[in-house]
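Fold this sequence, please.
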Amino acid sequence: MVIYSYGGDCMDKNYLVTKSNYFIMNSSYDLSLEEQKIILTLASMVQPTDEEFKPYTFKINEFMELLGVDTKTKYTEIPKITKELMKKVFEIEEGKKVIQVAWLSSVVYEKGTGMVELEFSPRLKPYMIKLGTVFTQYKLANILSMRSKYSPRIYEILKCNEFKKQGYIEIELEDLRRILSADNVYPLYNDFKRFVIQRTQKELKKLSDINFDFEEIKTGRKVTSLKFYIHSIKKNDQKNETCGTVQVPGQMKIEGAFESEEPVPIVRDFIKENITDLQIIKLLDAAHGNIELIKEKYAIAEQTSDIKNIIGWLLKAIKDDYKASEGKLNVFSNRKNFTERKYDKKFFDDFLLYPEKEQG
């Protein structure tokens, strides 16, 4: 049972932040800790049944208290933070499209009332409202007391991979830096490990519902990837709620540890290529949980020569509803000299973070 506790335009640390897994793993942005807490607090106020974003109005002092900020200048401090936040534009990759979007569409202050109204950019709707099948939820309380700007982002990345079948997620160091917008931060790996990874590790263990161990993967003597082993922490106040990757009623079940009756291993059984759980989830999401539809398109793929990128091909086949005659005769009839791509670790790992990015 998922508990939602909403009481109008008020705030509660027990509210649930909801985001699509695709958005978590494919967005890269640089926000201060205060800016992240504003965004996540606002996200926790979006109800799962909402059709559109709406403006949320709340008291500045209540907001500052929730964020744990104690300052006598709070009525001038919040406007400064939100003004800077309005300037923060980031990019989302969707196939061949790159969407540049700001987090907020508007911020309104009511003079003399101590009230502020915030509203998300409508471009963020596909990643936060009516999400379908694959999304992650967690209590706002898990991030509110964090003090490192990197901790909330790493928490989200690990949270949406909490129930990986193999028990870990491996991320290339370069990709992790890009997601965290930390390409030029702590250029020496030992500094990055100490001030980003290990600091986050301590904060998550102390403050959140998960913790992690990590293993360094080296190419030669250089650390090039990190394996994160994610552990759930059961707290006393979590007895009747489900957080993590969850389902919407009436939709397919992608929850827990991907046990045998769940869809991921079923799809893995008939797809011969070496692909990851997240790639399979992306296919399931595109097919709205219809495994037979994926089987149908994969059967067409088996009769189609010169497929360079099986996941990208299947996603397009599902989206455009390829039929058997099209798959065999027409779909790639205008492409020459394409060869089947053999398993390449980096190529497939790219889909872990960028499942819709076209691979060359």
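The chain has two domains: 16-245, 258-353. Residues 1-9, 238-244, 246-261, 326-360 have pLDDT under 50 and may be disordered.
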